[in-house]
Amino acid sequence: MPDTVAIFGSSGYAGGELIRLLDGHPDLEIAYLGAHTAAGEDLGSVHPHLRDGDRVLRSNDPSAPDVDLAFLALPHGASAEPAMALLDRGIAVVDIGSDFRLDTPERYRAAYDSDHPYPDELGRWVYGLPELFRRDIAGADRAAVPGCYPTSAILPLAPVLAAGLVDPTGIIVDSMSGVSGAGRGVHADLHFGAVDESVKAYKVLTHRHRPEIERALDLVRSGPVEVTFTPHLVPMQRGILTTVYAKGVEGTTLADLRGVLEKVYRDEPFVSLVEGSPETRWVVGSNRALIAVHFDERTGTAVLISAIDNLIKGAAGQAVQVANVMLGIDETAGLPLEGWMP
Question: Distance from CA of residue 200 to its chain's centroid?
Fold first, then answer.
């Protein structure tokens, strides 16, 4: 019998992608679709591209579903209460939101300018990036899926940082994302007329993903890691392209950098090293992360480039990958290994 799952936040972009992936999953079966503003509506009216099957979205009620695992695809601040209620009932939780990604009350307060409602839970949730923390995820009952920007930065940077090939301070992470990364809500600055034919940086020096990137990198290296992170909004629907600049330590070479990345990701089904520079169109619709590495010998700077689909490897796909590991299922089950475009 397949394990049963619930989705809270089914009406959003990530929730819709979760439904699409789980509808084709051989070992997981959707038993509950929760939503907030769309509760009571037919699935097809909210996500016309999905198979409806007379499914109706219910309310996000943590006391209702009788399932093995719940996915929370909710906005920041909305996951904590239902997560704890579900855990109290013995239901495993995979949180795609940001409520449990940080490890200390102090770091959470600095990032979100508020106190966490369950400060003792911070640090108890495993960080759901399977390629780096698979052993922690296996058998866990609660996992926090990384943000899309952190995923795109951590995957290329963590191995070379852990190997001591780059300086842990002065790291620059420069990311470009499609508009779906902002969610499905209506925002004036996300209207077609505001984003078409334009690129802009936003939340310069204040984006909440910077503390998360540093927290995750702390897990692979002892001692502080300092990152300057700048996100950019570009006129496309989905995808993230991230460029990381890190100063190489004395003696670091391109062969060293590439050798470490090849060793870490050689057997990973969803991470591949490519020549030149990956493009976001290569990963649309897939759970893949493509990484390229360069080294500027004039300045001694490592340049690491990654491309992911922000809604798949950056959200719903990674959540399914984490659930597979938690439940002891084939890690690739239900997940697309190839994108929609050549």
Answer: 22
User: Which residues of the chain carry a pLDDT beneath 70?
Assistant: 53, 180-196, 341-342
- Cα 37 to Cα 42, 71, 159, 208: the distances in Å are 12, 18, 41, 26
**Both tokens of residue 117?**
């409602």
Got the DSSP string for 247-281?
EBPTT--HHHHHHHHHHHHTT-SSEEE-SS---GG
In the block, which residue shows the tokens 């802009």?
200
Domains of the chain by residue range? 3-145+313-327, 149-310
The pLDDT value given to residue 275: 94
The span from the CA of 30 to the CA of 42, in Å, is 15
* Superfamily name and number for 3-145+313-327: NAD(P)-binding Rossmann-like Domain (3.40.50.720)
Q: What is the pLDDT of residues 174-194, one digit of tens each?
A: 999 987 655 545 455 555 555
Of 9, 154, 36, nearest in space to 95 by CA: 9
* Residue in the block written with tokens 């300018």: 113
| CATH number 3.30.360.10 is the correct assignment for the domain at 149-310 | yes
| Tokens matching residue 227 | 């990152």
Catalytic residues: 148
Instruction: Tell me the pLDDT tens digit for each residue of 224-271.
Output: 899 999 999 998 879 999 999 999 999 999 999 999 999 999 999 999
